[in-house]
Amino acid sequence: MFNLINNVARPDKNGFFGRFGGAFIPENLQKEMHKVAVAYEELKKSPDFINEMKYIRKTYQGRPTPITYCRNLSKQIGGADIYLKREDLNHTGAHKLNHCMGEALLAKHLGKKKIIAETGAGQHGVATATAAAYFGLECEIHMGELDIAKQHPNVMRMKLLGAKIVPVTFGEKTLKEAVDSAFMSYLKNPESSIYCIGSVVGPHPFPMMVRDFQEIIGIEAKEQFQEMTGKLPDNVVACVGGGSNAIGIFSAFLNDEAVKLYGVEPLGRSAKTGDHAASITYGIEGQIHGFKSFVLQDEKGEPLPVYSIASGLDYPSVGPEHAFLHDIGRVSYVTADDKECLNAFYTLPKSEGIIAALESSHAVAFALKLAKEKPQENILVNLSGRGDKDIDYINDNFGF
């Protein structure tokens, strides 16, 4: 088992994690992807690149982000001790800047002039716009029309940061269509632009690159938790849409067999009606956006419409490394529905003074259930983002 997990750290030369991953892309894009992959492999070994990333993380992003012990919440639940890895305190309010700064630095190295990205909840869009501003690059963000209305505060932040917002008006007008639109824009001029993908999805080398940049979460968390408690966490929990925040924290614990890992997918309104985005739980193997993974799809292999109260989880597939970790049984992929998410969204601020994003609230929701089942253990939750962006939407639709 451990030898197999060690191999997870790097996909094979074709970008496969077991049978998942790869690069199923048009021929004219293959050359550009190869350039990106070669440049990244060289750059990540460069002392100058490594030192610049360390400098950015320390002096700009505000890393390391802390771990917070939820004393009040743990007492209230009467179960396991709950801890939060505070990616909401990373600059721009979520984990997304961890890979956006790295991808933007790579773009600068490649002589690119423009960054193209998609966003659902807006956190990746804000992080991409921030990185573009930092490195002096043009920025184009594709966002579903429904998500633009739902995530108005982040749309304003992106505009303030100088990004061009491209509303996506076809299909379901959410994250999947935003990815489609961004890819189409990138295909028009890949020589002078780079696609800064928002999760551990897409064609190789993106799942590997994004995972590498997000590993900082797990590296910090492992050291911090041991310093705080004198041991490793019994359980690590993170929400999973595409899966970047989850793979970031899981990566440090994959070889620690005693640490149980849980990826929480969005069950939405109901599994019975199909109003969800639980790709591993209910999907089947297929291809989407240039890679192979579990996909929520119809009998013709077309992606199904998906739904989640959390725009950042509203995607019909999942990163190939997550699919592989599910296949080998190292990570348990579970679900939390909208009601459980909302309960967690309301509970955490009142008990701990922390407002979590709706995406992160899925992880908190599962942790609340797990805490009751394992009262003698501890739980480390990756709080992937803050909920400021969701307050207007919640107030308009559910109230306080």
User: Terminal Cα separation, in Å?
Assistant: 47 Å
Number of domains: 2
Q: Helix- and strand-based class?
A: alpha/beta
Range of helix content: 40-55%
CATH topology of the largest domain: Rossmann fold
The CATH class of the largest domain turns out to be Alpha Beta
Global outline: globular
Question: Would you count the extended β strands for me?
Answer: 14
Over the alpha carbons, how many angstroms does the gyration radius reach? 19 Å
Mean pLDDT: 95
Low-confidence region ranges:
1-7
Q: What is the second-level CATH architecture of the largest domain? A: 3-Layer(aba) Sandwich
Largest sheet: 6 strands, mixed
Task: Give the helix tally.
Answer: 16
What's the SSE blueprint?
Elements: H1 2-8, E1 16-17, E2 20-21, H2 27-43, H3 47-61, E3 67-69, H4 71-77, E4 81-86, H5 97-109, E5 114-119, H6 123-135, E6 138-144, H7 145-150, H8 152-160, E7 164-168, H9 175-188, E8 193-195, H10 206-229, E9 235-239, H11 244-250, E10 260-268, H12 279-282, E11 284-288, E12 291-295, H13 320-327, E13 331-337, H14 338-352, H15 358-373, E14 378-383, H16 391-397
Parallel strand pairs: 4-14, 5-6, 5-8, 6-7, 9-10, 9-14, 10-13
Antiparallel strand pairs: 1-2, 3-4, 11-12
Helix pairs in contact: 3-5, 4-14, 5-6, 5-10, 6-8, 10-11, 14-15
Summed up, what is this model?
The chain is α/β, with parallel strands linked by helices and 400 residues long.
